[in-house]
User: Which sequence fits this backbone?
């Protein structure tokens, strides 16, 4: 590895007493050694970075896989809930099916919650634009402005990150005295 | 970096004409340079390995996350299917619920299949111990031995790997002439 370097040497120093080919060679080798050692250190540091990034990538891959899968399952969950809502639990003909579907839904929600999927069902809570999407505003003197009056469709988070916002109706402050008060007067 | 090395030098050669402190130093530096360069090469090769392993880990993390999640969802799917099986589609009172549950099940299966989850429902197929688990054996002269006569519970694969075996009843060859033939003779 070092043989071709030897043939390259050119004496060019001014001080002939100390400037020998051997000293030139020593200086050259020292410089090369420095460079090679720095290279090894940089490679070791870079390897640390690669390892750390790899760990983060693994975590991200894990999260991302669950995020897509869980997100795609939400319409299935919606459909099951809608079926339960539409069936009358007091109808004796439907009771056992209704109970069966409720059991299935409970299993579904329990499984999702084991994978850190949580419902966003903010009825009566203050509107939070990070978790809720307003479909409509309604005046409602019985509520504080910006209260969720109705949840059209539940939202969901995964490990605290939003999978889907809750679709909601939000109260607003009356902009003016309501016209029907005038009519009654 | 190299100063302490200089003070360590001990002239110990036998050939005084060619064995100078400078030549010792050159030999030492060349050896160190070789070592440092090898170290840098090894680090670079190791980094390639770390990168490759990291890619595999990401793929595995992705698969593993889906595998656990999909596996845990199977009882939900079973429960939904059982509910549909137990409800009579010809009962007018149940028809709309039955249809709704079938729609929900279809959405569920479609979503699972988008994530490479596939049913193992081997009714009438040859028994395959890699995908099926035999719950019972039954003599059945109408079938080849080792045929799946009944699927108790469907199995599922994820990207071709088994998530859960199908629970099945398998036909076996009649071990002896059936006794009731003797009774009839």
Assistant:
């Amino acid at each position: 590895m070092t043989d071709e370097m030897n043939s390259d040497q050119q004496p060019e120093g001014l001080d002939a007493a100390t400037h020998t080919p051997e000293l030139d060679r020593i200086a050259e080798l020292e410089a090369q050694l420095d460079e090679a050692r720095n290279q090894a250190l940089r490679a070791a540091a870079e390897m640390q970075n690669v390892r750390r990034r790899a760990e983060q990538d693994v975590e991200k891959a894990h999260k991302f896989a669950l995020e897509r899968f869980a997100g795609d399952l939400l319409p299935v969950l919606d459909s099951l809930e809608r079926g339960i809502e539409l069936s009358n639990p007091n109808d004796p003909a439907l009771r056992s099916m209704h109970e069966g579907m409720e059991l299935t839904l409970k299993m579904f929600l329990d499984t999702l919650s084991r994978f850190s999927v949580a419902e966003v069902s903010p009825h009566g809570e203050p509107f939070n634009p990070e978790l809720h999407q307003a479909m409509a505003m309604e005046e409602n003197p019985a509520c504080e402005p910006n209260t969720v009056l109705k949840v059209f469709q539940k939202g969901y988070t995964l490990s605290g990150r939003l999978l889907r916002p809750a679709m909601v109706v939000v109260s607003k402050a009356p902009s003016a005295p309501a016209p029907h008060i005038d009519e009654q007067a």
